[in-house]
Amino acid sequence: MKKILAILPISIGGRLTTSSIIDGFRQNDCEVVVFDELFDENFQEIIQDKYDYILGYDFSGLKIKIDNGLKLPSINYFSDDIRSKTSGPEWEKYLPYLEDEDNYTFYWDKVLTSYENFKNIFYLPHFVNFDIYKDLNTEPEFDVMFAGRLDTDYRLSFFEELVLKLPELKIAWYAIERHHQDAMKRSKYPEIIDFCYQGFIDNEIDMAKAINNCKIVFNMNSQGISSLNYRTFQTVACKRLHISDFREELALFEGNMPFYEDFSDLIFKIENYIDDKDAYKKVVEKCYNIAKCSHNSKDCVRYMLKCINA
Fold it and tell me: Within its chain, how far is the Cα of 66 from the centroid?
């Protein structure tokens, strides 16, 4: 049995992604000890034990390994651009260590992976734990959901116009309070932003409930070149309809996942899938079956273990 020291990062997106990775290691009969950077304080006590690997999101695990002189291989899953501060404010300091033979990098974006030549780098799209992200057989309260930042003028105005163009639909927005307050200050329609805001979510169970509580999740991917973000796989696992902006890796869903080309196209698709329940169900089932087969935590972590020869 392999013993893994897993670092649960501070960022909300990182925590959700890492949770599914941790679940996958446990599903593959690994012992996982979790250090939570947000809440735990006993790190020096934890690292006194012996581990086979340290696991982290972006540079979080590698940073702890290097800063504490730990002599064990690292497993690093990136769903942010490796060569950007989005993966950590000190990314330039830790980037060279990804060249070391005992550090393994798994990258969520196919095109970005092709740009790198680290010895141990592997392309691995997002995946989720289907024991947590699942259809709860509840009647949705909301028609449409968006989770993420409205931190640019484009994203903010896009969301505002969506609400204005679909006044008959109930639309939910989830983000951390800081981003809620920022959007309120910048918005032309702060009352709309405040009405749609439903709080923030920092754990898998509540995210699964929120996705189950809506009919359609739409996405605006903000990272990478070709990739689909974590919300995509959370949504399809819950058997809810996901509509993405266009990304090359929509091919992972074999032409079944709807995407929008522009704002008008998104409005058109939302209205059509709300009205056409048969079309909705057909898409949801096809995307679910593909994700269940290829993007589940147990099988994807088994692939990680194979890559690191564990």
Answer: 26
User: How far is C-alpha 35 from the chain's CA centre?
Assistant: 20
Give per-residue pLDDT as tens, 240-252: 999 999 999 999 9
The answer to pTM > 0.70 is yes
Q: What letters, b where the CB count within 10 A reaches 16 and e where it falls short, cover 261-271? A: eeeeebeebbe
DSSP run (H or E) holding 136: none
pLDDT digits (tens, 9 = 90+) for 164-213: 999 999 999 999 999 999 999 999 999 999 999 999 998 999 999 999 99
Alpha-carbon distance 58 to 84, whole Å?
Answer: 11
- Average of per-residue pLDDT values in the chain: 96
Distance CA 162, CA 154 (A): 12
Retrieve residue 41's tokens: 């304080």
Q: Maximum CA pair distance of the chain?
A: 58
pLDDT score at 202: 85
Predicted local confidence at residue 1, as pLDDT: 87
Reference 261, options 250, 253, 252, 274; nearest CA is: 250
Residue 76's identity, in one-letter code, is N
Q: What values do phi and psi take at 142, rounded to 5?
A: -110, 150
Which of 162, 108, 167, 155 has its CA nearest to residue 295? 108
Residue 49 vs residues 26, 53, 92, 269, 285: alpha-carbon distances, Å: 18, 12, 29, 53, 45
E strand residue ranges, the chain? 3-8, 31-36, 53-57, 74-78, 103-107, 121-123, 142-147, 171-174, 214-218, 241-245, 259-260
Sheet holding 241-245, edge to edge: 171-174, 142-147, 214-218, 241-245, 259-260
